[in-house]
């Protein structure tokens, strides 16, 4: 079975959705997290999953912490990386090492509303339709070849909270499905 790692910085609802997926075609073998107090770490403990927690400030630069991440990934024989709310831009060190094998999920229809608070951005912009994108990453912020998108309508009586809930529900369905489709043929 292919071994994959999830990178996350926050709550970990997407992490949990992936972990709860029966018949996932890969083994999630490691969580990588850049925030020592992130909720996702507690969730990983619940599954007995090994975690690599790092503090970027303890390293001289991005290349140095990404090198440390890669060493840990190699130790666990990780061949694919799934970003699930990992709020850092990948650098050349990581991108070169896992070329074409790093996937991200983002809560908008990219290229609209990249970056932080994509749901709030779409809500405030007053668009009628937003959604979820799963894509390969490159050196940009939420850019790179799109793999799958799903639309979510913004309803007349939506609040940012109700919209967020519907978008996250779509994320939790879509991400495991896309992971399986991507890896099935590998
Ligand atoms: C998710 O909505 C994910 O799409 C988003 O962060 C959230 C993490 O939630 N990612 C980005 O905005 C990437 N630019 P979670 O920790 O509950 O999975």
TrEMBL record:
Pfam family, one: Formyl_trans_N
Function recorded in the entry: Catalyzes the transfer of a formyl group from 10-formyltetrahydrofolate to 5-phospho-ribosyl-glycinamide (GAR), producing 5-phospho-ribosyl-N-formylglycinamide (FGAR) and tetrahydrofolate.
Chain's gene name: purN
Family, similarity comment: Belongs to the GART family.
Reactions mediated catalytically: N(1)-(5-phospho-beta-D-ribosyl)glycinamide + (6R)-10-formyltetrahydrofolate = N(2)-formyl-N(1)-(5-phospho-beta-D-ribosyl)glycinamide + (6S)-5,6,7,8-tetrahydrofolate + H(+)
Active site (catalytic residues): 106
Keyword Transferase in annotation: yes
DNA-binding in keyword set: no
Molecular function terms, GO-annotated: phosphoribosylglycinamide formyltransferase activity
Name listed for the protein in its UniProt record: Phosphoribosylglycinamide formyltransferase
NCBIfam families, per the entry: PurN (TIGR00639)
Enzyme Commission number(s): 2.1.2.2
Keywords: Purine biosynthesis, Transferase
GO terms, biological process: 'de novo' IMP biosynthetic process
Residues engaged in binding N(1)-(5-phospho-beta-D-ribosyl)glycinamide: 12-14
Transmembrane segments: none
Cellular component, GO annotation: cytosol
